[in-house]
Amino acid sequence: MKQRATVLLGSAFVALAALAFAATRVIAADKVDPVADAKAFQNFFFQKFPNVKHEDFVNGPYSMNEDMKRQWQEKEEFPPYEFALDAGKEMFSTPFKNGKTYADCFPNGGIGIRQNYPYFDEKEGKVVTLELALNRCREANGEAPYSYVKDEMASLTAYMAYTSRGKPMDIKIPDDPRALAAYENGKRYFYTRRGQMNFSCASCHVQSPGERIRAETLAPALGILNAMPIYRSEWSGMGTTSRRFVTCNSQTRAVPLEPQSDEYRDVEYFLSYVANGLPISGPGARP
Amino acid sequence: MKRSLALAMLLVMSLAPSARAANEADYKAAYAAAEAASKEAAGMRNQWTVTVSALAAAKKAADGGDFDRAVAAAREAEVLAKASIFQATSEKEAWKAMEIR
């Protein structure tokens, strides 16, 4: 009888210990760990495409297809974003009505800083993207904000990206629970299926990079924002990161969110962080 | 003979309500249900473009007096909106299965 009770007690103890271990594992899996995430994210792509040089991932579909890459390299001699780049440079140095310029709003006069955006603003408790910072600069100097999706905003960000070309993406996540929450929210947005097509960002850019969706070759998610803004032949013009998110959502038949909504800011934060170390290649050109 | 005639009449009468043309009241009820579901989806930040299109088509048909088409479009919108709510609800946890770890 005593023996039986001992066996029962022992079994109960083992079962409890197993449950406790499993619970710890679940908690560990749910803990936000951006460093581990970024490492796993990059390794996934490096292992999936062992022949692609790490710094080439920022060239989107061209890193996936040699023929496309050769065509693009020839196009780069007279790149389609050149007009936007020139316009952006001029706009950047043209003073506002109050005599100040964009340079007054940014560290290092706005030159060579693209790799640090978006950042987490601890005062505001939110992610601030380069596009948002540019419009805030305009408004602080008495100017009307630009559309977030194209034209002037694309030109300005094209110029700022150009001054950062080759610099490694360097996004920081401060030791602030709100920053971690923003990062996690961005991650959630990236992996969440939406729209009638039931696609997440990851459905195309993690599961299927290099594959074709209709006539398009899908770009890998790794480094996808390093090339922003881009000239897209499909758009017959330039587009910003905001435009990219909006059109991706529409293509899945989801109603896009408003540009610079919290979700878009957070997903930009997540995608930029996991691309840390990869060079800025913007402005880019895409089919 | 009399009995089968009565049965046939009963059959016709039982089918009559579903065969009648939709009226404005039917449309309003169908549209209200679709709109409520659509608002719920939008509140979850998961509205579908096809829901918005179906709602617009329902309104357009009703404005033109075609209540059959308006009711059909409104019902379609409601079904789509409910599917988007289901998607948003299930994705609250399901997205984690997609994550690269």
Automatic annotation (TrEMBL), chain A:
| Keyword Metal-binding recorded | yes
Subcellular compartments: Periplasm
What's the EC number here? 2.8.5.2
**Which chemical reaction does it catalyze?**
S-sulfanyl-L-cysteinyl-[SoxY protein] + thiosulfate + 2 Fe(III)-[cytochrome c] = S-(2-sulfodisulfanyl)-L-cysteinyl-[SoxY protein] + 2 Fe(II)-[cytochrome c] + 2 H(+); L-cysteinyl-[SoxY protein] + thiosulfate + 2 Fe(III)-[cytochrome c] = S-sulfosulfanyl-L-cysteinyl-[SoxY protein] + 2 Fe(II)-[cytochrome c] + 2 H(+)
**What superkingdom does the record give?**
Bacteria
* Keyword field: Electron transport, Heme, Iron, Metal-binding, Periplasm, Signal, Transferase, Transport
Domain Cytochrome c positions:
181-287
Broadest EC class assigned to this enzyme? transferase
The signal peptide stretch is 1-22
Return the SUPFAM superfamilies for the record.
Cytochrome c
Main subcellular localisation: periplasm
Q: What family is this protein classified in?
A: Belongs to the SoxA family.
- Assembly and oligomerization: Heterodimer of SoxA and SoxX.
Check the record and name the NCBIfam families matching this protein: thiosulf_SoxA (TIGR04484)
- Its protein name is SoxAX cytochrome complex subunit A
Name its species: Bradyrhizobium diversitatis
UniProtKB/TrEMBL annotation, chain B:
Identify the keywords attached in UniProt to this record, alphabetized: Signal
Q: Which residues form the signal peptide?
A: 1-21
- Name recorded for this polypeptide: SoxXA-binding protein SoxK
Organism expressing this protein natively:
Bradyrhizobium diversitatis
